[in-house]
Write a structure and sequence with these properties.
Layout (H helix, E strand, L loop, with lengths): L3 H22 L4 H13 L8 H4 L7 E2 L2 H6 L8 E12 L4 E5 L8 E5 L17 E15 L5 E13 L13
Parallel strand pairs: 1-2, 4-6
Antiparallel strand pairs: 2-3, 2-5, 3-4, 5-6
Length: 176
C-alpha cells in the first residue's frame, strides 16, 4: 500500500502539470492575450503613428466590401483598402491575425499580416473580439479547410495602420 502512494501522487502531479501547461499555452485565454498586449506596449512608440498623423495618408485608401474583395481578390492585389472588423484569432509567432468582417460569420474572415509598428500610437490591448479598423494592401489569398472539409480561399492583407479604439462619431470629426 505504501508503494502505491508515491505512484498515485506522481500520476496526480503529472495530471496537474498537463492541465497547467494546457491553460498557459491555450490561445483563447487571457494570459496569451496579455503577452501580445505587452509586446505591443514594448514596441518603440516613435515608429508608430497617431491617428492624426495617419489622417493625411488615409485618403489614399478605399473601402472595399467583403463581397467584392472575396469574389474578385485578384483585381485588388496591391490596392490600398480599409475595413472594419473584430479580431477572431491572433498568431503572435507569424505576426498575423484573423479578422471577422461580418459579425461571427467564419466565412467572412481575412488574414491580416502586421508588424507591431503598424498599430496606432497608444497603449493598445489586443484580445479576441477587439474591434479594429485597418488600412492595408491586398497581398494574396490564403487557402484553408473549413469545419465541413471544404477548401476556402480567404484574402490576405498587409496592414499599414491598425486602429483599435474606434470612435463611432463618424469621419467628419477627424476620427479615423
Amino acid at each position: 500500500m505504501i508503494r502505491n502512494l508515491p505512484t498515485k501522487l506522481l500520476i496526480v502531479m503529472l495530471g496537474l502539470l498537463v492541465l497547467l501547461m494546457y491553460f498557459l499555452l491555450s490561445s483563447q485565454n487571457r494570459f496569451a492575450s496579455s503577452i501580445l498586449e505587452t509586446k505591443v506596449n514594448l514596441v518603440d512608440k516613435s515608429k508608430q503613428k497617431t491617428v492624426s498623423e495617419f489622417n493625411k495618408e488615409r485618403k489614399n485608401y478605399a473601402y472595399v466590401s467583403f463581397d467584392n474583395l472575396y469574389s474578385n481578390t485578384s483585381l485588388y492585389y496591391g490596392a490600398k483598402i480599409y475595413q472594419n472588423g473584430h479580431i477572431k484569432n491572433v498568431d503572435m509567432d507569424h505576426n498575423c491575425m484573423l479578422v471577422a468582417l461580418d459579425g461571427n460569420d467564419e466565412s467572412r474572415t481575412i488574414k491580416l499580416k502586421y508588424s507591431l509598428s503598424d498599430f496606432e500610437r497608444r497603449d493598445t490591448g489586443i484580445q479576441r473580439n477587439t474591434p479594429i479598423k485597418f488600412y492595408g494592401r491586398v497581398l494574396s489569398t490564403d487557402r484553408y479547410i473549413n469545419e465541413k472539409g471544404r477548401g476556402i480561399n480567404r484574402p490576405v492583407i498587409s496592414a499599414d495602420f491598425i486602429q483599435t479604439q474606434i470612435n463611432k462619431q463618424g469621419e467628419s470629426d477627424g476620427i479615423v
